[in-house]
Structures are given as structure tokens and as C-alpha cells.
Amino acid sequence: xxxxxxxxxxxxxxxxxxxxxxxxxxxxxxxxxxxxxxxxxxxxxxxxxxxxxxxxxxxxxxxxxxxxxxxxxxxxxxxxxxxxxxxxxxxxxxxxxxxxxxxxxxxxxxxxxxxxxxxxxxxxxxxxxxxxxxxxxxxxxxxxxxxxxxxxxxxxxxxxxxxxxxxxxxxxxxxxxxxxxxxxxxxxxxxxxxxxxxxxxxxxxxxxxxxxxxxxxxxxxxxxxxxxxxxxxxxxxxxxxxxxxxxxxxxxxxxxxxxxxxxxxxxxxxxxxxxxxxxxxxxxxxxxxxxxxxxxxxxxxxxxxxxxxxxxxxxxxxxxxxxxxxxxxxxxxxxxxxxxxxxxxxxxxxxxxxxxxxxxxxxxxxxxxxxxxxxxxxxxxxxxxxxxxxxxxxxxxxxxxxxxxxxxxxxxxxxxxxxxxxxxxxxxxxxxxxxxxxxxxxxxxxxxxxxxxxxxxxxxxxxxxxxxxxxxxxxxxxxxxxxxxxxxxxxxxxxxxxxxxxxxxxxxxxxxxxxxxxxxxxxxxxxxxxxxxxxxxxxxxxxxxxxxxxxxxxxxxxxxxxxxxxxxxxxxxxxxxxxxxxxxxxxxxxxxxxxxxxxxxxxxxxxxxx
Length: 610
What we know:
The protein is elongated, with a radius of gyration of 38 Å. It has an 8-stranded antiparallel sheet with strand order 12-40-15-16-17-14-13-39, with no helix packed on it. Strands 3-4-7-10-9-8 form a 6-stranded mixed sheet. Strand 34 and strand 35 form a beta hairpin. The chain folds into 4 domains: 2-61 and 104-186, Myoviridae tail sheath stabiliser (STM4215-like); 215-328 and 601-607, no CATH class; 336-390 and 533-591, no CATH class; 401-523, no CATH class. It has 6 helices and 40 strands. The longest helix has 12 residues, at 118-129. It is mainly beta and 610 residues long.
């Protein structure tokens, strides 16, 4: 009935009046009182009458009738002050609520709209019918323990008028009827148990190593009493939870055998080697408080991630950690990028610029399958690419330098010092000698010109002169982009032959070192048989996108643009995949889950009674 409360109609005098709502299925006694025990009194209009017309068992929603859901609830302490309940900031009593599986039904309800003229009827129908398109969601209670509080109302049929033609001399009240269906549950009473076990250890007589604590510390509470246990013998694995809550993660024990030894558990033979119940482990350390006890993880960057813990009531071998998201590393805002010509690009992404929409392999995923046409690509759409795309396609224009470089694992220079055991200094000046005596590059067996490039390298100044203290890598930059195919239609092969020096440890300037040959074939990656890239990754003007593996690209409405280049960024970058909710970190060489994964012994701890 509350669904129809609050509707108004505009009367003939221009005033807006509320339409009363009543329960339509009245008893004779109540109906007689309303009519003043007279058949000559007519009910006032307009009004809305609601009543139930049917209740059927909904077999399509039946579930396991033996299922019992358990919830651990803790209330806050409170005092009665002047007849009012005043809540404190500490924990009060704890309860376990056991909810039995409810029985599903279909409830059929009818609402009759009484009006005296068509104008009143149309005013009310216009307000009501637009709410059901085709349904209206309702919440029956704000009690979060009630798992049947959410439901929906469907408009199943309508009857515009109850009048018939010809009407005759009498004029009945015009009634428009609306019929509704609503899926509901009838729930058995829940069982509420008050926890009567020991929920906290007031003080431990022994510390974590088994040594007795100083008695003065126990009496005067002035010592370093530790109620935190750091587990140095077994590791755990933290993975994203599957309960749909963003900050929840499942924790499992890696080495069950070591955990049994560490906790001092006495398990029967049939339980050894199987998944370990977290309740058994935590009980050995004095028990825990669900939703209150904390877990702390040490991150690789030296920070800490903190959350509260609860044992999964369905699978007690899983510990659910509800992380404090303020302790989780924040996403890195990628606000700018680089166009293919090297100019700066400003991101057009409207949502968080520290997120991506998906992680994809460009050869297995086609965005056109998802969006139909490039015109439907959302502005600011972002992907993290797992593979190179079109890096060695035959270019239509002059290729950029980044697509013509061949990497090697050879240092450009050999760095020596008079005393190799000491760092470079004014008294221990470094000397650098070329590692490469001669290099040649062949494309399909034909020698081609190239330029030597040193990638990296470091210098220091001693006695007002600059000295190389660290060598960069030897790289080959082709003067022209190689063709994709040879004269016979086979995929092109680039071969480089490097004759490099073999400096002995005793080498001094002026000696003639030996050399060795290094031959390497470089096959063009991607799809070498094509001279044009996949249609899905072309820009609107038909040009190909040249994308490196581990890059993050963004659609700006007409072309794909890099907003993250793995060759330019070496610091920690954090981004979140919106499809999975998992956060990733760039460590300078690869993308890793930022904090999910295995935590070795000593890198995590529990605070059971904070």
C-alpha cells in the first residue's frame, strides 16, 4: 500500500489534493462503520483500494531447504540514560544468527482506482504507470541481516474501466484496476545465539618465543606487552574474493604441515596434509574476534596493508580479509601520453585515469566484436596490451626510430679500473674499451647499412673530466625499415653478425685482445606475412597502430594513443583493471599483481586482540 501513498490530483478549483489509500478487503463490520450503517451513504472519490488476490508457491526459485546461513554479529556497548539508550565506542555482546532457507512465493495484488470522472483517472494513471517500466524495486526493511528485504513489483495487467455500455440511468463509480505480481519469501524464525565462550585474552603469561613475561609488566602494564603474532614459519596466499565485495580477499595457508607444527596442533592422521581449518589455528593463539582482529601485510616497497579478518562460514579453510583501502597503494593517474609523432597527448578518459578497461592480447581479442564499429568505441577506452602489434609491418610512411632498433644483450663498452674491487674515484679512474670490433647486418642475405646506438650508460666527473662508469647496451638502428617478405614470398629474416672482443682480466691498454663471432637471426614478430595490420586496431583514417607489449593504449575518438610506454617508465606504476577489480604494478620490466599473491613467512602478522 505504501507504493501508492502520496499521489495527488488537481481538483476543479485548481487545488491539488492527496488521494487516500485503503485496504480494500474489508470485513462487514468495518465496512458498516465506514458507511455509518446506512445504504444511502456513498464512498468519497477519488481513492485507491489495495487487496491480495492470490498467493502461489514459486517452484522456479526453490533452493536447498536444509541450508543454514550463519552470521556473527557484535553490538556496541550501551547504557540507559534517562530512559534512552546511549551507545558507547566499545564492543558489547556478540551473537550468532542462524538464518534458515526461506520459501519463495508469488504474491498477486490488485489496486482499484476509484474516480468520478475520466480526468481524475488519467491524472492518477499517468503518475502510477510510468513507475512500472516494467517493474519497481522495493525494500521491505532496512535490517541488513534480513536477506529477503529486496524485492520487485511487476505490473501484469490493467483494466481501464469497470463501466459497461449502454450504461443505463444509474451512474456507478468508475473503477480502473491494476494487477501486480511480486516475488516474496516466507522466512522461518532465525535462531539467535549469544556467545558465551571466552572472546578475549586479558593477558598472556608468555611471549611469542615461549619465555615468561616480566611479572611487573603484567601488574602495572608498563612493559612492552605484545599481542601481535608474527608468523615466521609458514606463508599464505591472498587472492581476490568471490563474494562481490571490492575490499574482500581470500587467504589460504601455503604449507599446511608447517602451520600444524607452528600452531602445535594435534591432528588425526586422516586430516594431515589436507586444507587446514583457520578456526583450529586461531584457537591455538587465543582465538580471534570476527571483524575486529587485524591482519597486516608487508609490501615490497616497505609499506603495510591492513585489514580485519573473518573466517568464511561456508569454507572455514579460507580466511576473509576486509582490507582498509586507505592502506592499499593508490592508482597512478595516467593523464598524458605520446602521439606516434612524439607530441604530447592529453587523456580524454572521463572515468578514473588510474584504471584500464581490460587486459587483452591483440591477436585474440577484437574490439569490433564487442562494439560493432569504431564509432561505438567509448571515448577514453583503455587496454593493456600483452603482445606487440604491427611493430614490424611494412610502413606506408617513414618509420619511427623505435620500430627500427634491434636489441642485443652485449654491453657497448667494457669498464675497467686499476683496482676492480674499489669504486671509481679520482684515485681509481675508470677506463672504457669498445666491446664490439665489427658488426654487420643482413636482411634476407643482403648487407644493409645501420647505425650503432648505445642504450643507457652512466658518467661521473673526476678532476674536471667526465668518465664512463657504466656501459649501456649495444643496439643496432637500421637506416631503412626491412620488408616483410623476401623475393620468394617468405617471411623476411634479419641477421646480425657481431665480432666482439674477449678481454681477459689482465687486459691493459695497448694489448691486442682476441675476438669471437656472435650470429643471431631476428625474425619479424607479429604477423610477418601481412603488410597491413588487423582492421580492429586501425585508426579511423585507415593507418596502422604500432604498439609495444605491456603498453596501455587509449582511444581518443579517431586513433589509438599510448598513455603508458614500458620503455620510458621504470618507476612503480599502479593501475586497476575495471573488469576484474585487480590492481597491478609495473616494476620496470613486467606487470605484476600489486599486493595479491604469496606472502612468505615473516611478511605478515595477525593482531588477534587489538
